[in-house]
Write a structure and sequence with these properties.
Blueprint lengths: L15 H8 L2 H19 L5 H10 L9 H8 L4 E3 L5 E3 L3 H29 L11 H24 L4
Length: 162
Amino acid sequence: MDRRPKAAPQKTNKDVNYFYKKSAPDEDLLADVDSFGLKAQWDAAPGQKLSDVIRSYYEGTGATSVRHRFEIFCNANDLKYTRNDDGTINWDSALLEQLTARVDHFNDLYDAGPIGVVWTGIITTEPEHEKWQHTPAIANKFLDWVKTNLEAEFKRSSGKKT
């Protein structure tokens, strides 16, 4: 008789919000955003020690500091927006379509698996592209998250309370 505890049944929730939170927690997203800020800080003063780059980014106040993390991230990733007088933003009208295509391309590669990617590269120059059902919703959730944080960053830098 096997007395080991049985694994708990896995939750099978097909809710997009559930999968987004599991796949893209704020901690992971912030780390991704900060990698672009750290690169900008490194480029701002070539020859710095890594510890100085990290210190300057997280403790500094300049244009390449954590205070501008979302602005740096948007610029580095061509996430175009218009900044309104009230500190809010409007995304460029083509952005959702562009981001959806980028995410769909990643999904195509992920779905193909390592062998599929190599095989596709040998047989054709371009893998087949699918339009993934939930990609627009995921892209919108991501853009909403960036927008909320970018607008809060603008309000902090203007001295307004968030």
